[in-house]
Specification:
The structure holds three protein chains of three kinds. By secondary structure, chain A is mainly beta. Chain A has one helix and eight strands; from the N terminus they run αββββββββ. Chain A has a single domain, classed as Sandwich (Immunoglobulin-like). In chain A, β2 and β3 form a beta hairpin. Chain A is elongated, with a radius of gyration of 19 Å. Chain A starts with a helix and ends with a strand. By secondary structure, chain B is mostly beta strands. Chain B folds into two domains: 102 residues, Immunoglobulins (Immunoglobulin-like); 269 residues, no CATH class. In chain B, the strands form six sheets. Chain B has a seven-stranded mixed sheet. In chain B, β24 and β25 form a beta hairpin. Chain C has one domain. Chain C has an 18-stranded antiparallel barrel. The longest helix of chain C is centred in the N-terminal third of the chain and has 16 residues. The chains are: A mainly beta, B mainly beta, C mainly beta. Chains A and B meet through β2, β3 and β5 of A and β9 and β10 of B.
């Protein structure tokens, strides 16, 4: 009976893979490699307006599991790196995108360039 | 037969119901050794956190756990607390408090309120971290107005005693103005010379330094608030009906003149601490706008600065076909100490900027020509953006409104 | 107690004097017909539903009052008068035609959290606001069918059409205009002393839905609801023009004993899908709801001096809802970049029953289990409840006079909650949404005690071809959520 129903009306294929991982990477023109980022990254789902925040950076990246969809991402904080002379340099920064699609079921990489505030 | 059929159907139904009707209690496991960490920006120094309140609220049960500052342990710029036996689940985390800190040599303070919603606490992921946003504190002070032309009397005479400068805290934190000094350039923007050594890329050559006194936290300036530094903090309407009252200025430039014929009235405002001035009498801003001005955080004591920051600039002065080797004994303030600077000149005579381009790559003015009669009663005022913040692109040609109505005349 | 005794004495007296009730009335309203009614969805089976032709014209009133809304989206009451014509004509032993036409115009009161018509069909993907109000409802309903025997096959076709207009004449001024067309075709054949039937059904549904505000002071937010208090935030607010389209297919099969005695079974599979589309933004699809329903009966019956039937009923409905993910706006339209199945609901009804009757009376007892469950994927929300129930019905046909047939019904039911669960992110819910989900949970898990009674009198006129009738049915449901509901249906009509 189910087979007949499916043939007749094309049974609904549920999309239960609703989450995806997003990795946010911060880059800058003033350094090749940012060694540490200290910031709160805010992911706002454009459709549901639900906000997810994380401060769990590893180096210059942070990975978070999100509901698949389009996001507004903003981040403000401090990053540090060693300059050519070996000194630690810190900069306050802000970065934002008003549209990033987190749709790939496996991994989504978003790179944002830091705007220096100091 | 029908009886057996009915009984067997009832039995099947009962079995089916028994499978679905029974449900175990949903007991929620607890997480041991979970920590909540509040990160403050790593570029802050001497961080002191006070009035801290942190709350984690279980989204499902609405049960809230509240913690106060004494329960937190400080580790560098991070503040942590161990959460005992918290139920697994999704939590909303919020923390608010007060930070005192030093950033780039500038003391500051800031109330913060940080939130993180939908945070999962589980046995696999027991730790929660929230990060207090950084905020602009360094270089927060800007020169927002220089009234250097003076006013005119009803008789049309110039009246230059009512000059003033306004500096504003353009950041979003309360800053302390102690040890901020007003600097006047040694060199003139209408007289370019090849000075040796040419230190402009590293330091600002100055002929006047007047510093806001204090113990480091004496002069608190809230975000958006300003300090009026008057040449003379008196009510100038008494001497000039076209002038205004500066008796409520925050500070004044006071000089103990060596010439009893040229004395400086000691107005009601607190006096700036005079470190150096080229004149032995009374200081005032160049009323045609040939000098440049800056504000700097002095990182030395007066004595050390006077001893270690003097230098001699040599140059060749040329007059027609004659040349003369000249020297000028002056002082310098490192560009790294400078918080903000403004080049002033006039279009007809401008030759060069005497502040490094990294501090100001343009210049602004009142008057188009030397001794321009129309320059009086005008000021240079920094523009503001849509959010009410002063624009500071380090280009006074862009950042300032030239020949503006002075704020005290509005 | 004395009143009950008096009533029983009257009934027994009347029974003793009873003659045969009007068979046309009996065959249309006997509880015994429950053993076949599910199979009548097949027009080829429905052909033989009644032996007697009959046409009825009636004026009816349906009244519902609830002390607290059992389902806020359906309001706390209605007053729905209607004019109806129903006919079933046996043109010959082999051919029957039947049909109906009805017009309804009434009021539904105090609807909350719903600005869309046909809530039961489209839930949870509706437009809603926190204000609500009364609505006026007008509907036209037509049905017609024809079935006949060709060689050894019975073939039948049926068409049902309805058009409804629901609206509110004060802010927020909702308006829903719906059309619903169903076409059925079926076949049946006698094999091994059973009439085996198979039918197919297709349905097409449309609704245009909008909310307007005339108040100069402003508008309120209209929410694109997505289940269990969630809503599609990006397109909620001032997007108040929608349309719905959808429909689906059904297939039904049945086996009825030709003699009326023996094993019987029927099964129905129905699939529906409804799409919610924003009229703005170049007809942007927002959500899709998929409804899959299966219902089956299997039983045994025997009719001789007495009538006995034993049956088992199983029914399961599964709804799942997809939210379309809107991408980046391009020239006032939003592409769909994906979809997520965020909403699921399940309904199960399992019960066993028995019918026993003699000449002029019938009784029925059902014992069973119902469960309902709704889930929203993220942030996770869940609401479920299960009940055991017992339902008892009694019915008696009397003929107090030569030309008068009286039918008296009574029923009682009891639903006892045996399981319940609510899982909501209460800390994130606004107060109106918290009240809404808590109300929904209270009524979903509540036990219910129901009582009902009905009486119908048919009186043949001097020309026995014609009759007049009056019917009154009343029921009350008492919910453990401290609320009660009263239902009243009155009909007055003529039959021929």
């Amino acid at each position: 009976m189910a087979a007949i129903m499916c043939m007749l009306s094309a049974c609904h294929k549920e999309e239960d893979d609703i989450f995806a991982f997003a990795t946010l990477a911060i880059t800058t023109d003033v350094a090749e490699n940012i060694e540490r980022v200290q910031a709160q990254a805010v992911f706002t789902n454009i459709n549901s307006r639900k906000v997810t925040t994380t401060a769990d950076f590893n180096g210059n990246t942070v990975t978070v599991e999100l509901l698949r969809g389009p996001y507004l991402i903003s981040i403000e904080g401090v990053f540090s790196y060693h300059d050519n002379s070996g000194s630690v340099v810190m900069h306050q920064f802000r970065a934002q995108t008003d549209y990033a699609e987190i749709m790939d079921k496996s991994q989504n990489l978003i790179t944002l360039k830091a705007i220096l505030l100091d | 037969m029908k009886k057996n059929f009915f009984i067997s159907m009832i039995a099947m139904l009962a079995i089916a119901v028994s499978f679905v009707a029974c449900s175990d209690d949903d007991s929620v496991p607890t997480v041991k050794d979970s920590t909540l960490t509040i990160e403050t920006p790593m570029n802050l120094e001497q961080v002191v956190l006070s009035n801290l309140n942190a709350t984690i609220t279980n989204v499902k049960t609405n049960k809230a756990y509240t913690f106060t500052g004494e329960q937190f342990t400080q580790n560098g710029n991070d503040f942590s607390i161990l959460l005992n036996d918290v139920e697994e689940g999704t939590y909303n985390v919020s923390a608010n408090g007060h930070l005192d800190f030093v950033l780039g040599g500038v003391a500051g303070q800031k109330d913060f309120d940080v939130k993180s919603d939908g945070v999962s606490i589980s046995r696999q992921n027991p730790n929660v971290k929230v990060s207090v946003s950084s905020f602009t504190a360094k270089g927060g002070f800007v020169i927002s107005e220089i009234f250097f032309t003076g006013t005119t009397t009803p008789e049309g005479e110039q009246y230059g005693n009512d000059q003033y400068m306004v500096i504003t805290n353009n950041s979003d934190v309360t800053l302390y103005a102690d040890s901020i000094a007003v600097l006047e350039s040694e060199f003139l923007t209408i007289d370019k010379q090849e000075y040796d050594p040419d230190i402009m890329s590293e330091a600002f050559s100055v002929d006047a330094v007047y510093m806001i006194p204090g113990n480091g936290k004496s002069v608190a300036v809230e975000p958006g608030k300003q300090l009026v530094l008057a040449i003379n903090a008196v009510n100038h309407k008494e001497a000039n009906a076209n002038s205004f009252d500066l008796s409520n200025a925050d500070f004044e430039f006071y000089d103990e003149s060596s010439n009893p014929n040229f004395t400086d009235p000691d107005g009601s405002a607190q006096n700036l601490d005079k470190w150096y001035c080229y004149t032995a009498t009374v200081f005032g801003f160049h009323n045609r706008g040939f000098h440049s001005y800056a504000i700097a955080r002095m990182h030395e004591t007066k004595e050390n600065w006077l001893q270690n920051y003097a230098y001699t600039a040599a140059y060749t002065w040329t007059f027609m076909e004659y040349t003369f080797d000249q020297t000028k004994d002056t002082f310098k303030v490192p560009n790294s100490w400078i918080l903000d600077g403004v080049n002033l000149s006039v279009e007809s005579d401008w030759q060069w900027n005497v502040l490094d381009a990294s501090i100001d790559k343009g210049w602004t003015y009142c008057g188009k020509i030397d001794k321009d009669k129309t320059r009086y009663n005008k000021s240079v005022i920094r523009k503001t953006d849509a959010n009410g913040k002063y624009i500071d692109t380090n280009d006074s040609a862009n950042d300032f409104e030239a020949e503006a109505v002075p704020s005290f005349l509005k | 107690m004395s009143r009950i005794i008096i009533l029983l004495i009257i009934l027994s007296t009347v029974t003793a004097q009873a003659q045969e009730p009007d068979s046309a009335v009996v065959e249309r309203s006997s509880l015994w017909r429950a053993t076949e009614q599910a199979a009548w969805i097949n027009p080829a089976i429905h052909k033989d539903a009644f032996r007697q032709s009959r046409t009825e014209i009636s004026v009816s009133l349906s009244q519902r009052n609830e002390s607290k809304p059992f389902t806020p989206e359906l309001g706390d009451g209605h007053t729905l008068p209607s004019l109806e014509v129903n006919t079933f004509l046996r043109l010959s032993e082999r051919t029957s035609v039947w049909g109906s036409a009805a017009y309804m115009n009434g009021t539904v009161r105090n609807i909350k959290w719903n600005s869309t018509s046909d809530y039961e069909k489209l839930k949870p993907y509706i437009l809603a606001d926190t204000i609500g109000g009364d609505t006026k409802k007008e509907g036209y309903y037509f049905a017609g069918a024809y079935a006949t025997e060709l060689n050894k096959f019975a073939l039948g076709a049926e068409l049902l059409f309805s058009a409804e207009h629901e609206y509110r004449d004060r802010d927020p001024r909702m308006r829903g205009i719906t059309t619903d067309l169903t076409m059925r075709a079926g076949a049946a054949r006698e094999i091994a002393r059973h009439k085996l039937g198979l039918s197919l059904e297709g349905n097409i549904y449309k609704q245009t839905n909008n909310v307007d505000f005339y108040n100069e002071l402003g508008v309120s937010t209209e929410y694109q609801m997505t289940g269990l208090g969630t809503y599609y935030a990006r397109f909620s607010g001032d997007k108040r023009r929608l349309y719905f389209n959808g429909g689906g297919l059904s297939i039904a099969a049945s086996a009825l004993p030709v003699s009326g005695n023996g094993l019987y079974a029927d099964i129905l599979l129905r699939q529906r899908r409804y799409h919610r589309v924003l009229a703005d933004y170049n007809s942007m699809p927002l959500t899709d709801i998929y409804d899959e329903h299966i219902a089956a009966n299997v039983g045994w019956k025997r009719s001789a001096n007495s009538r006995t039937a034993l049956f088992l009923h199983a029914e399961h409905t599964r709804r799942s809802g997809d939210e379309r993910i809107g991408g980046k706006s391009e020239v006032n339209s939003y592409p769909t970049i994906g979809k997520l199945t965020m909403y699921k609901s399940r309904f199960t009804d399992l019960h066993a029953g028995a019918i026993y009757g003699r000449k002029t009376w019938n009784t029925q007892l059902n014992l069973g289990y119902v469960s309902q469950e709704e889930q929203y994927a993220y942030p996770k929300r869940e609401l479920s409840a299960a009940h055991l129930f017992a339902l008892a019905k009694g019915q008696i046909f009397l003929q107090p006079g030569k030309a008068t047939t009286l039918r008296i019904d009574a029923q009682a039911a009891f639903y006892a909650n045996i399981d319940k669960k609510i899982d909501m992110p209460f800390a994130d819910l606004s107060i109106p949404i918290t009240d809404y989900v808590n109300h929904k949970y209270d009524f979903t898990k509540a036990g219910i005690t129901s009582f009902g009674a009905g009486i119908r009198a048919d009186h043949k006129l001097k020309n026995p071809k014609y009759a007049v009738f009056a019917e009154l049915n009343a029921a009350t449901d008492i919910s453990a959520a401290h609320a009660s509901r009263f239902l009243l249906n009155i009909s007055l009509g003529a039959a021929f």
